[in-house]
Amino acid sequence: MMVMSKRAPARSAGCPIILKPAEQTPLATLLLDAFIQAAGIPEGVVNIVTDFGETAGAALVDHRAVDKITFTGSSATLKRMSLELGGKSPTIILADADPDRPIPGASRSLFMNSGQVCGAALGLYAHKTLFDGVVGGMADKALRLRAGPGLNPDTEIGPLMSEEQLSRVAGYLYSAHVNGAELVVGGHQLDGPGYFVESTILTNTTRDMSGRQEEIFGPVRCVMRLDDLDLSAIAADANGTVYGVAANIWTKDMAAGHTLARLIRAGPIRVNGGVMDAAIPFGGYKESGWGRENGREGVELYTELKSVSVRLG
User: Is 273:252 a contact under the CB 8 Å cutoff?
Assistant: First the structure.
């Protein structure tokens, strides 16, 4: 009963599962495996691992490919959590997109708060037919930005939050340089007081570079060229980090837009500049957090569901 109360809803939601029974009582779960095979459920959909909690259990909890743990056992001091964490949100510009529309939005997403936003679009994919125009348009906007203190009404891009963050961003820029990335614009600390760094665009980056994999939390964007229109391959590359806060898609083909939105593992996804609103749930996949804020789901984070059953007569 305990196993099926977890397995049935997980499978109903379309999730493959790994069952680790208590090491003291594994036989009932192993017997279940015989019924699973007899029912014709495909191999790999339901997996059973027998071992101790401190070995197999700990490995499942620690493994990045495991998105959710459901546990029945002894209690400790527990508190519910909702987490809003780091991000590396992709912007994807397909070949049929109007090249002039994504540039303002993509630029705002990068330079707002000097890139110090969990949902900042710090990775941009542009089809090869639009690549040069998109990179040139964003570079032009970056060069025109007026840097200064946040209280100055003429300021368009402010400082980083601390000297430590300035040093961290500088480290990513140095790493990109020594590993062969091409600097299109920016890439240096601004002269004068304060923790200012130029708005920066990098190309010729590789998937394994730290600037592609980690949250920079600064005005530094990596722009990648899309050489084909394989939506699955595009989504796989966009999903190739531990983060999944948000994503932006630009296309005139709504079928392609919906397909990418389904394939990308992120919370809020905007197509062609779709709005963000306080009524729309916000939150990430993977290491970008748990739970959703805003909207009805944001209220439900602070509630507990109670079930009452009454026999009448």
Answer: no
